[in-house]
Amino acid sequence: MALLPIVTLPDPSLRKISQPVDQIDAEIHRLLDDMLETMYAAPGIGLAAIQVAVPKRIVVIDIGKTEEERSPLFLINPEITWASEELSLYQEGCLSVPDYYEDVKRPATVQVRHLNREGQLVEFKAEGLLATVVQHELDHLEGGLFIDHLSRLKRDRVMKKFNKAARIDEIIAQRRHETERHSEEAGV
């Protein structure tokens, strides 16, 4: 297994719509395992393949709080087939929007259909935190982020913050490159 780099804002690839998985093979199993290891290491409780730069309809979830409570879910080509009218409010965060948390309202209960690791069609009902995580991760498959559920003002502030941080990172990388180039030219 391997840790995969997590794509973060403002990377436009997070807005790509993920494609269905046609065949569950060794490559998909390896991706599922790598995603799970990456999610645990981050640490997080859900991760969509697009967050590791793979535009496939794949999600891993584990809401267990300790290693002993772990019970990973592998969702391939997942879809929500029903959502309750009752809403719940959870403070959400995202590995692709690091260190930012905000309350989001979503349906309190959802019915989910997906393929599991073995390619079997599975349906389950998710409530509470699991329902929130499923909806959050499935948003990623459609190019969505949890910040899309916020007011325009809050969303714009978050985007501005991450765009500014990306520009600063770019300037630092550019200066580092120039310093290295000057050192090479000077024979240092």
Characterization of this structure:
This protein has 188 residues and is an alpha+beta fold. The chain has two domains: 12-150, Peptide Deformylase (Alpha-Beta Complex), CATH 3.90.45; 151-188. Helix content is 34%, strand content 27%. The chain contains three helices and seven strands, in the order αβββββββαα. The chain has helices at residues 26-41, 128-141, 152-185; strands at 46-48, 58-61, 73-83, 87-94, 97-107, 109-115, 121-127. The strands form two sheets. Strands 1-2-3-6-7 form a five-stranded antiparallel sheet. Strand 4 (87-94) and strand 5 (97-107) form a beta hairpin. The longest helix is centred in the C-terminal third of the chain and has 34 residues, at 152-185. The chain starts with 25 loop residues before the first helix and ends with a helix.
Strand sequence of the main sheet, in spatial order? Answer: 1-2-3-6-7
The ordered string of helix (H) and strand (E) elements is HEEEEEEEHH
Shape: globular
Q: What is the rounded Rg?
A: 19 Å
Percent helix range: 25-40%
Number of strands: 7
Number of helices: 3
Instruction: Summarize model confidence as the mean pLDDT.
Output: 94
Total domains: 2
CATH architecture of the largest domain: Alpha-Beta Complex
Q: How far apart, in Å, are the first and last alpha carbons?
A: 39 Å
Largest sheet: 5 strands, antiparallel
CATH class of the largest domain equals: Alpha Beta
| Low-confidence sequence ranges | none
Q: Strand-residue fraction? A: 25-35%
In CATH terms, what is the fold-level topology of the largest domain?
A: Peptide Deformylase
CATH superfamily of the largest domain: Peptide deformylase
**Structural classification:** alpha+beta
